[in-house]
Amino acid sequence: MKRLYLVLGLIIVILLARLLSSNGGIGELFSLQNQLTQLENQLAEQQRLNAELSQQVKDLQTQNSAVETLARQTLGMIAKDEVFIEVIETKSSHVNDSVK
Question: Which of the residues in the chain have pLDDT under 50?
C-alpha cells in the first residue's frame, strides 16, 4: 500500500511540475490571456476608427458641404467671394529682468 501512495505522490508531483512549467503551463496561459486582452483592445479601437472613416465616406458621397469643409480644412481652399486671412502667432520672447 505504501508503494501505491508513493507512486501516486510521484505522479502528482510530476503533474504539478508540468502544470507550473513554462511550456504549456499556467505562466503561458496568463501570458496568452494578457496578449488576448491587448489584441481585443486594439481590435475595438480599429473598429471605432473604421466606423468613423465609413461615416466620413458616406458624408463625402452624399453631402457637398462635407466635401467643401474637407477642402477648406486640409487644402486651404476658399470660395470665389471669400477672403482668406491667416493668423500667424509668434512666440513672445521673455526678457530676463534680473540684474547681473
Answer: none
**Percent of the chain at pLDDT exceeding 70:** 91
**SS3 sequence of the chain:** CHHHHHHHHHHHHHHHHHHHCCCCCHHHHHHHHHHHHHHHHHHHHHHHHHHHHHHHHHHHHHCHHHHHHHHHHHHCCCCCCCCCCCCCCCCCCCCCCCCC
Cα dist from 89 to 29, 76, 86, 92, whole Å = 55, 18, 10, 9
